[in-house]
Amino acid sequence: MSLLPHLGHGVGLRTVHYPQVLDGTARADWFELISENFMIQGGRPLQILEKARELAPIVFHGVSLNLGGIDPLRQDYLAELDLLIRHFAPAWVSDHLCWGAIGGHFAHDLLPLPYTEETVRHVAARIRHVQDRLGRRILVENVSSYISYSISSMPEWSFLSAVAEEADCGILLDINNIYVSAVNHGFSPIEYLCKVPAERVGQIHLAGHSSQGDLLIDTHDHPVPATVWRLYREALRKFGAVSTLVEWDDQIPSFDELIAEAHHAREIEGEVLSASSISA
Amino acid sequence: MPAPSLHDVQRLFWQSVAVRPGRDSIAPGFLGLVRGRDDSERRTRIRVYSDAYLLRLRDVLREDFPRVAALLGTDQFDQVVENYLEEFPSDQPSVRHLGRVVAEFLRHREELPKCLADLAELEWARIEVFDAPDAASATVADLISVVADEWPDLRFRVIPAMQTLRAQYPVHQLWSGDESLDVSAAQTSLRVWRKDDYEVLHAPMDERESAALHKMIAGETFALICESFGDLAAAQAAEEASGLLARWIEDGIICRVDRPD
Ligand SMILES: [Fe+2]
């Protein structure tokens, strides 16, 4: 999104790399941190966060806002998020276009929504509420999914676009999630990229996945595969340079290996953008 | 028939995936909402979510209660987790709080060794202390300038990252692996605290130390704290009390020394 800065090619910061943050060797263009991990009163994680933002710009990425849920938005959660934002001044804040709680109970998972007009209105209103409460635009991310609903009346890209337009929010486009869901549901990932409003895409996620029978599972436990790199190239051709982040949440490699993925993303961006400026 | 609402979809999803963890419990009516070649494929797809729900939360609990998990063994721990999640699904946005009532839950399971609940209480206290509010610890320097007649009226403030624990079993020995589940009961008092370098520690306390620490937490004066050693000869009591104070200071569990006005 033009209003957001281009932070370059960052990595998701996880506990295993806290020592490198402390000794200052965790060098990246930027870090993304899971908001909920820092909704605590004190201790080491907050110290790490202080240190991380001395090293590079940070962004908060939430997993429990429950934007698509039926339960009322948790005001205590929003208050904590607001405190974190005021204290740590992230470049932006994001969460997911999904639901994750009902009846006061949390799945701690990113659960798929039916793509209907009703859902568009419902989610967009909640995003607007969050944006009003936080006094800033947020980014919402497309999730991987393993089921789709017979009552859905539009493809995922239409749903994502409609929500973003109606809520006037940004989009965190997860290229791996597009690929995983495209395989699982048999849609075209290229068509997806073409139909998303480019001016709203403020961040890109890259990650690895694994397969289970006929399904791809968004496990974040592998390097970014060639299929996802190819789709990333398409995304760059479509959106131009967008702040890009590599996520790795399981079987996490050394910081050097993780950062090598971010460097690879930077190389690809360089190649694609110089090629398109030549052809232009 | 009207199309199911967003609420219906989520209610049926939750019933199918989270209400009976570890058991196939796909809600009637949910299968029809899911696209697929046939019911077998629909079930496979739904099961990705029910498996992920159980596995993710089980991993969280195993990480939060590593000693309980090790002593129970994989099969029994998994069973405990399934029952726990069924009774106490997560009710907070942060998964950090998932294990909040594990100790209480274990205490009501007649079939499990009684010491497990005590051990779980220790493991949970360590988590609470890990991310409790920060406070700079007092140092010996804070005591050096205290003159003799101020001592009896000194009061102390303990750091927020400190908890005390009473158990019916020597849980510190269970925690360290020096005892197994057939350990004999023995009244045990512990303190659990976080050092300035963020390391979390715990240590058993004898009756005198426990009494003295509880008086300190309650904001009593040093003179009253020393009464915890009243059964000893005066000289020895003074020596014990000041030794204890020095150790607490060194451990970093005191954050303020208040002198009398
Ligand atoms: Fe993502």
Task: Give the gist of this structure.
Chain A is 42% helix and 18% strand. Chain A contains nine helices and twelve strands. Chain B is built from eleven helices and five strands, in the order αααααααββαββαααβ.
Structure in words:
- The complex is a heterodimer of chains A (280) and B (261).
- With 280 residues, chain A is of the alpha/beta class.
- Chain A has one domain: Alpha-Beta Barrel (TIM Barrel).
- Helices cover 42% and strands 18% of the residues of chain A.
- Chain A has an eight-stranded parallel β-barrel, surrounded by four helices.
- In chain A, helix 1 (18-22) links the parallel strand 1 (9-12) and strand 2 (31-34).
- In chain A, helix 7 packs parallel to helix 8.
- The relative contact order of chain A is 0.14.
- Chain B has helices spanning 6-17, 39-64, 66-72, 74-87, 102-107, 115-130, 141-144, 171-176, 207-217, 222-226, 234-251, and strands at residues 155-158, 162-167, 188-194, 200-205, 254-258.
- A three-stranded antiparallel beta sheet of chain B has the order 2-3-4. A two-stranded antiparallel ribbon of chain B has the order 1-5.
- Chain B is mainly α.
- Chain B has two domains: 6-112, no CATH class; 134-258, Outer Surface Protein A, domain 3 (Alpha-Beta Complex), CATH 3.90.930.
- The longest helix of chain B is centred in the N-terminal third of the chain and has 26 residues, at 39-64.
- In chain B, strand 3 and strand 4 form a beta hairpin.
- The chains are: A alpha/beta (280), B mainly alpha (261).
- The site of fe (ii) ion has 5 residues of chain A, from loops.
Layout of helices and strands:
The complex is a heterodimer of chains A (280) and B (261).
Chain A: E1 9-12, H1 18-22, E2 31-34, H2 44-55, E3 58-61, H3 75-88, E4 93-96, E5 99-102, E6 105-111, H4 117-134, E7 139-141, H5 156-167, E8 170-174, H6 175-185, H7 189-195, E9 201-206, E10 210-212, E11 215-217, H8 226-239, E12 244-246, H9 255-279
Parallel strand pairs in A: 1-2, 1-12, 2-3, 3-4, 4-7, 7-8, 8-9, 9-12
Antiparallel strand pairs in A: 5-6, 10-11
Chain B: H1 6-17, H2 39-64, H3 66-72, H4 74-87, H5 102-107, H6 115-130, H7 141-144, E1 155-158, E2 162-167, H8 171-176, E3 188-194, E4 200-205, H9 207-217, H10 222-226, H11 234-251, E5 254-258
Antiparallel strand pairs in B: 1-5, 2-3, 3-4
Helix pairs in contact in B: 2-4, 3-4
The structure holds fe (ii) ion (FE2).
